[in-house]
Amino acid sequence: MTGEEVTYESTFSKATHSDTHQKISFIPDTQNGEVLGFIILVVDLTERWRNEQLIKEQKDELQQLNEEKNKFFSIIAHDMRSPLNSLAGITELLMRNVNSGEQANIEKYATMISDLAAKSNTLLRNLMEWTLTQTGGIKYSPVKINLHHLIDDICSVYCGVANQKNININKVIPDGLEVMADKEMLSTIFRNLASNAIKFTHSGGQINVKAEKQIIG
Description:
The protein has four helices and seven strands. It has helices spanning 46-100, 103-134, 147-164, 183-200, and strands spanning 6-14, 17-31, 34-44, 142-146, 168-172, 178-182, 206-210. The protein is elongated and about 110 Å long.
């Protein structure tokens, strides 16, 4: 070690105590230019170090929450696009029939709008619940789900957009087929699949949804 002051910062762990953070300085004791020894100065910086660690953890947590928020907005925009497009299309048809006085069609389209609005509200509520699961507000809760009924509910939300593109959705799912899963999480997966399938299927095409029970082993 030279005759210059040397300073280190280090964290120490003890079996029976919390970590401590210290700054250790070796100050040369000189006389007539000759180093006779060193004075060791130890400064406890544990409190400052812990505060810095806490700030870092809070910053990381805030960044994660911000990423979750952006993810949530992205999912809302993705999942709500189809029902809103359907709603706009049906509303336009309703207005045309209002002008022409077609009472039967007016009632039909009004019923479709009411049904679609209710399903959109359910979709939004499911998205909110899914967001809580991602932020720890709701835990994963697997239950028995009738897959046929679940797919029917999801396809009915997207049927308006599919009809506008003249896309036929074929479902081949046994009525009694059940799966063990978290309903909201599974619904989110199928909604994304349905939306993407309609988006990337050419006009006049068809989408096949199939499921079957397999026994492994």
